[in-house]
Amino acid sequence: MNKKMMEILACPIDKHFPLEIFELSSKEEVVSDGAIFCPKCSRFYPIVEEIPIMLPDELRDKDQDIEFLKKYKNTLPRKIVSEGLPWHL
Ligand SMILES: [Zn+2]
């Protein structure tokens, strides 16, 4: 995902803008892995293989999200890993 996308992305739940981005791996302007965080509703959205997965709660894959959090629990901020929605560790 190109970082410039952050200039237009809003939270799919509450339409909040701007959102926060946490880069886990990136090259120049492109984020390969990371997380997008909505400070209004505390939801996080994974960025996996350059794709931001911004789905409403009912369409999210909980197992996949938990695996993502476990993988990056030491790198992502506590507000995502321990307190993020719709689920956290
Ligand atoms: Zn939100």
Can you characterise this structure?
With 89 residues, this protein is of the alpha+beta class. The protein has one domain (3-81). Helix content is 16%, strand content 26%. The protein has two helices and four strands. A four-stranded antiparallel β-sheet has the order 1-2-3-4, with no helix packed on it. A hairpin with a 2-residue loop joins strand 3 and strand 4. The radius of gyration is 12 Å and the shape is globular. The chain starts with 19 loop residues before the first strand and ends in an 8-residue tail after the last helix. The mean pLDDT is 97. Zinc ion is lined by residues 11, 13-14, 16, 38, 40-41, 43.
Summarize the structure.
By secondary structure, the protein is α+β, with helices and mostly antiparallel strands.
Entry keywords:
binds zinc ion, alpha+beta, 2 helices
How are the secondary structure elements laid out?
Layout: E1 20-27, E2 30-37, E3 44-48, E4 51-52, H1 62-71, H2 78-81
Antiparallel strand pairs: 1-2, 2-3, 3-4
Bound molecules: zinc ion (ZN).
- Integer-rounded radius of gyration: 12 Å
Neighbour order of strands in the largest sheet: 1-2-3-4
Q: Largest sheet at a glance?
A: 4 strands, antiparallel
Average residue pLDDT: 97
Report the helical percentage.
10-25%
Q: Tell me the structural class.
A: alpha+beta
In what range is the share of β-strand residues?
25-35%
Indicate how many domains the architecture comprises. 1
Give a count of the beta strands, DSSP E runs of length 2 or more: 4
Shape: globular
Bound molecules: zinc ion
Give the low-confidence spans: none
Total number of helices: 2
First-residue to last-residue Cα separation: 26 Å
Order of helical and strand elements: EEEEHH
